[in-house]
Amino acid sequence: MASLAPAVAAIRVAVRRALADLTGPGPVLVACSGGADSLALAAAAAFVAPRTDRAAGLVTVDHGLQPGSAERAESVADWARQNGLAPVEVVRVEVAGRPGGPEAAARQARYQALVEVAGRYRAAAVLTGHTRDDQAETVLLALARGAGPRGLAGMPAYRELAGVPLLRPLLETGREQTRAACAALGLTPWEDPHNTDPAYARSRVRADVLPALVGALGPAVVDNLARTAQMVAADNAVLDGLAVEALTAARHPDGGLTVKALADLAPALRGRVLRAWAHEMGASPAALSHRHVAALDTLITAWHGQGAAYLPGGLRVRRHRDRLLPADPTAALPTDDGEVDT
After folding, report:
1. Tens digit of each residue's pLDDT (9 = 90 or more) over 97-111
2. Closest alpha carbon to 121 in 85, 75, 80, 73
3. Environment class of 151 (CB within 10 Å of its CB; exposed 0-12, middle 13-18, buried 19+)
4. Closest of 115, 123, 164 to residue 29, by C-alpha
5. What's this model's pTM, rounded to 2 decimal places?
């Protein structure tokens, strides 16, 4: 009997590990574009899932952004059906009109579609084919944006999206391994032209920045960037847990947060508390930036009677004596002398 190609074996092991802790009887659904990463993942899931008493299906999303996209999506679905994946769905999405740039809009549309399909089938999880190389690119993009620890943590191997577990089994697998697995299995991946289009920041990082770093610092740079994300994510988890406790302790019995409790916190922890509180009030995580959190922090550490800090979504927060208080943006705010501040 022919020996199993190392890349195929490695990806199957990664999928088996990812599925080990899933609960519930539902299928796992692989998000597959037809590229090497998601195609290798789908082939592995088709082999592994039935051997763990679980069905594996496939969802391919047609963004409608390129000529022939509908036909390509149907060809991916046909391949999936022929290889024992079920259920299989092709979902057409509308990208135009969504907030953010084209990459963000396409990503939002794609994940919304995946969550909807997962809900219909009561899927145990959705699997995506993000690799170690994708993680390294994500860290570099986060550095360029000045995103801080949350951005440097990259993509988590597990997260929940609208109640649906989202798994990334291949974050410790290199892109070259997915290509080798496809070659060993006789699969022909689709090469997405967007991946080499310099109009997209990730494409420029992939084509120019990361290869330049590898050339200057050696191939280990990809592993090291991905490992950095893993370590930062572990630190973030601890700090986020401490922030939950600190937010609870800072709540004022009459509403809002107690200034002294916030002032006594280390700056890194106070920033997380303020960010969590802003999210709680309804500020969009995507829109809430460092400058918004810094404006809240100024109400604590450099308050001289100034007015409210403004947050995304028309929210505002004001300091009133010993408290930070959310305020109705259409209402006047009480000042310390009993007058109103508009």
Report:
1. 766 677 777 888 889
2. 85
3. middle
4. 123
5. 0.86
